[in-house]
């Protein structure tokens, strides 16, 4: 069970924070980028093949223990407009005593049209677990599978473009349909909110 859960969360983490992800900055009446970015993704999980960002924040967080996770496009949840890509790396998996849930650290690179935002959740700021299948049956996968619910919180550790001077926090929440047959894993809902200090 621990091996399956670790693999499931690695896939979850991989799809959440590594790949093609898009973000939208809300623009105020004065034309300035607002202090919040909201992003959304549904679809198939994709393994992160992106090289790590060339930033000291990533090097300091990763050390020698992080691994590539996922990469996804991200969209404006209100308009459906593609806003950019995300790339995710993870480390430090820690199981709960019952082996049914775990926490880990993640570094997310939001590569957006307005610039990049670099964030991380420390060493174990993201957690997830399988939820009771009777609460929500998988809708995309065929064969055995279960739904994973999870999310995390962390801090902005750098940026470029319009986000070059941002500091603040981010929150992410996700529901993933995890297949036990080797088929595609689906993100029923992946949500990100990045807030300037």
N-to-C series of helices and strands: HEEHEEEEEEEE
Q: What portion of the residues fall into strands of 2 or more residues?
A: over 45%
Total E-strand runs: 10
Number of helices: 2
Largest sheet: 10 strands, antiparallel
Q: Considering DSSP H and I runs of 4 or more, what fraction of the residues is helical?
A: 10-25%
- Give the overall silhouette: globular
By secondary-structure content and strand pairing, the structural class works out as mainly beta
* Overall tally of structural domains: 1
Question: What are its keywords?
Answer:
197 residues; 10-stranded antiparallel sheet; 2 helices; 10 strands; 12% helix
Write up what this structure looks like.
Strands 1, 2, 3, 4, 5, 6, 7, 8, 9 and 10 form a ten-stranded antiparallel sheet that branches. The chain has helices at residues 2-17, 56-62, and strands at 24-27, 33-44, 67-75, 82-95, 101-112, 115-120, 126-130, 145-159, 168-179, 186-196. The chain is built from two helices and ten strands, in the order αββαββββββββ. Residues 1-33 have low confidence and may be disordered. It has one domain (2-196). The protein is globular, with a radius of gyration of 16 Å. It has 197 residues and is mainly beta. A hairpin with a 6-residue loop joins β3 (67-75) and β4 (82-95).
Secondary-structure map with pairings?
Layout: H1 2-17, E1 24-27, E2 33-44, H2 56-62, E3 67-75, E4 82-95, E5 101-112, E6 115-120, E7 126-130, E8 145-159, E9 168-179, E10 186-196
């Amino acid at each position: 069970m621990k091996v399956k859960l670790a693999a499931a969360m690695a896939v979850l983490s991989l799809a959440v924070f590594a790949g093609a992800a898009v973000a939208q900055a809300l623009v105020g009446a004065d034309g300035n980028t607002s202090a919040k970015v909201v992003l959304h993704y549904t679809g198939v999980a994709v393994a992160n093949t992106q090289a790590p960002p060339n930033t000291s924040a990533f090097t300091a967080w990763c050390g020698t223990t992080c691994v590539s996770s996922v990469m996804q496009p991200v969209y404006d949840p209100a308009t459906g407009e593609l806003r950019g890509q995300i790339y995710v790396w993870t480390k430090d998996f820690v199981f709960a005593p019952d082996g049914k849930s775990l926490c880990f650290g993640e570094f997310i690179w939001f590569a957006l049209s307005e610039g990049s935002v670099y964030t991380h959740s420390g060493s174990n700021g993201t957690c997830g677990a399988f939820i009771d299948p009777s609460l929500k049956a998988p809708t995309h996968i065929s064969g055995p599978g279960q739904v994973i619910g999870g999310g995390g919180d962390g801090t902005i550790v750098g940026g470029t473009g319009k986000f070059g001077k941002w500091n603040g926090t981010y929150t992410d929440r996700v529901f993933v349909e995890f297949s036990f047959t080797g088929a595609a894993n689906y993100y029923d809902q992946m949500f990100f909110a990045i807030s300037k200090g």
